[in-house]
Amino acid sequence: MDLQIKKCITANPQLPVPRVAELLHYNHSLTYVLLNLQLLEEEMDKLGEETAAVSHLSGEELVQFDKFASPKRKREWLGGRFAAKHATAKLLERTKSQDNDMHWSGYIIMADKNGRPFLSANKRNPENTCDISISHSASMAAAMAVNKGYCGVDIQQVSPQVIKVRERFCTNKEKKILQDFFSVEPEEQAVPLTKLWAAKEALRKASFLDSLPGFLELKLIEITAAPLQKNAGLWGFIFNCKNPAGSTHDICRVAVSPIEDYVLALTVRDDTVN
């Protein structure tokens, strides 16, 4: 019995794929998927957790899934993997690099030694033909897939706790940029700070350095938005990012958008696109 994954997908009309590509200055194919974990749990209950897992995971993935003891952790992991599989299927169908009759659950998502997910080879997919990224927060999971370069996605539920750790990821200069652009009251600082946190997390996930860059190494230099979209919730965060040589910096862009009480950030590192 098939899991009705489409019933769990959340649409985000504020951030259509063409607009994401435009904000990122990305000229290749990309896609992303938002998954409601509560709806996923309801759909899985109809099948039974074991049946749903066995039917939609490979043997290698089941080994990883069985290591989780917490029901919450299992749900988050499954939501992220299912979102990534669905994003992969959408991307490869769009680029026509795979047969269109490939079921979304047939793709295999594994993780490297650093925990970064990747599309594993199988008989129907002999080569890694896209890059993927996964994130989850509270009751939402997100995944992104691109056919060129390294991508990063992050979803964060807005919480006042982010204010307490601001110094770990936000410089005084970045705080001023946020304040000048969003003009929020002090008690509402959690919202723009979460946008910055999510944007930097997405960039870290898209990094191809031997070690992930620190939050304070990623320097916000500008926020952009079309005049009619500044308050509607669609922004381009522009950063200075250290490149592999370490001696120069590259301009990196992140598309950022709110989704109810969450913030979604999507990026592709320009310096990884051939």
Strand content: 15-25%
Q: Sheet bearing the most strands, described?
A: 5 strands, antiparallel
Helix count, per DSSP? 8
- The strand count comes to 10
How are the strands ordered across the major sheet? 6-10-9-8-7
Distance between the termini: 41 Å
The succession of helices and strands, N to C, reads: HEHHHHEEEEEHHHEEEE
Low-pLDDT runs of 5+ residues are: none
Rg on CA atoms, Å: 18 Å
> How would the global form be characterised?
globular
What order do the helices and strands come in, and which of them pair?
Blueprint lengths: L16 H8 L5 E7 H11 L1 H8 L2 H7 L5 H25 L12 E4 L5 E4 L10 E7 L2 E7 L4 E7 L3 H4 L7 H11 L7 H16 L13 E6 L10 E8 L6 E11 L2 E7 L6
Describe the overall structure.
This protein is an alpha+beta fold and 274 residues long. Strand 4 (131-137) and strand 5 form a beta hairpin. The protein has helices spanning 17-24, 37-47, 49-56, 59-65, 71-95, 161-164, 172-182, 190-205, and strands at 30-36, 108-111, 117-120, 131-137, 140-146, 151-157, 219-224, 235-242, 249-259, 262-268. The N and C termini lie far apart (41 Å). 33% of the residues lie in helices and 25% in strands. The chain is built from 8 helices and 10 strands. It is globular. The strands form 3 sheets. Strands 6-10-9-8-7 form a 5-stranded antiparallel sheet, with helices on both faces. A 3-stranded antiparallel sheet has the order 1-5-4.
